[in-house]
Design brief:
By secondary structure, the chain is mainly alpha-helical. 53% of the residues lie in helices and 11% in strands. The protein is built from six helices and three strands; from the N terminus they run H-H-H-E-H-H-E-E-H. It has a three-stranded antiparallel β-sheet with strand order 1-3-2.
Length: 123
């Protein structure tokens, strides 16, 4: 199936064929499930955050990786980016409706893991 045919199928109310190598939904899945994509979506579930707040809430992510991750999530329509015209510009990120829908099961998964993970033994 070519990409054009795939898009026509999706427009007609059908789902994308994510097992096809040219499926545009594959890129979105890759971005959502990337190392930092999951954390960015979970972090933004509570409220909109400025870049530095998001960076500080996701320990271990570099500014470069967070920027790349956010850029991909914005392009995918999962995250919105709002720039306030101040000096320096203040950039705030938040979830779109699509991002809320996608992040909900990720948050549920995160909650299940953290609630049921056995305690670590002191070692």
């Amino acid at each position: 199936m070519r990409e054009g045919a795939q898009l026509k199928q999706a427009e007609a109310g059908h789902r994308y064929d994510v097992f096809h190598t040219d499926c545009p939904a594959r890129d979105v899945v890759d971005h959502v499930t990337s190392r930092w994509g999951v954390w960015a979506l979970i972090a933004l579930r509570g409220s909109d955050l400025r870049f530095y707040e998001l960076r500080d809430s996701i320990r271990g992510v570099s500014e470069k990786m967070l920027s790349q991750t956010l850029r991909a999530l914005v392009q995918d329509g999962l995250v919105r980016r709002e720039v306030e015209p101040t000096a320096p510009p203040q950039v705030t990120y938040g979830l779109t409706e699509f991002g809320q829908d996608v992040s909900e099961p990720l948050t549920d998964l995160f909650d299940r893991i953290t609630e049921r993970l056995p305690p670590r033994s002191a070692g």
